[in-house]
Design a protein that fits this description.
rod-shaped; 161 residues; mainly alpha; single chain
Length: 161
């Protein structure tokens, strides 16, 4: 809450409570038909009522400022949420593009794995023959004990639903 709001509410409440005393005096003077005392008491009551009205308007100003601050805060939070959503969308889009082209941005060349025969020309180095057994690296499998074996095994996988 804004300080103006709190001050206005407390001030109005106190002045309304303080107005009860002159009103009690007014009622007592009315029973006794003492008009001078009634006029003084009514003057004090009007003074407290006026102060209560001033504090009421101060409280209303404070509530308007509170509402304005809340709207600004909500607008800022909304803008931050929109920006966060846009950033997440861009990141997700980048990840999607990367997953669609997994090897597009990575190029690896391992010279010890693929050695071209010396008799190939330099122009043929970029287009190696597809069925050349010299270029194929043997498959290595590991046993449960951790030993490597180069024996190729034919494996058949069948899935039934």
């Amino acid at each position: 809450m804004h300080t103006k709001t709190i001050e206005g509410i407390v001030g109005a409440s106190n002045n309304v409570n303080m107005m009860k005393v002159p009103m009690r005096v007014y009622m007592e003077a009315r029973r006794k038909n003492d008009t001078a005392k009634m006029e003084r008491a009514m003057g004090y009551a009007n003074e407290f009522a006026g102060k209560a009205a001033e504090y009421k308007s101060k409280a209303e100003e404070g509530m308007k400022e509170d509402a304005k601050e809340i709207k600004e805060k909500e607008q800022l939070e909304r803008e931050q949420a929109i920006q966060k959503s846009r950033d997440e969308k861009k990141q997700l889009q980048a990840e999607t593009e990367k997953s669609q082209n997994p090897g597009a941005d990575i190029l690896q060349t391992l010279e010890e794995d693929y050695i071209l025969p010396e008799h190939l020309a330099a122009s043929d180095a970029f287009n190696p023959p597809k069925a050349n057994p010299d270029l194929v690296k043997p498959t290595v499998t590991y046993t449960k004990t951790g030993k490597a074996s180069t024996a190729q095994q034919d494996s058949n996988i069948s899935i039934s639903l």
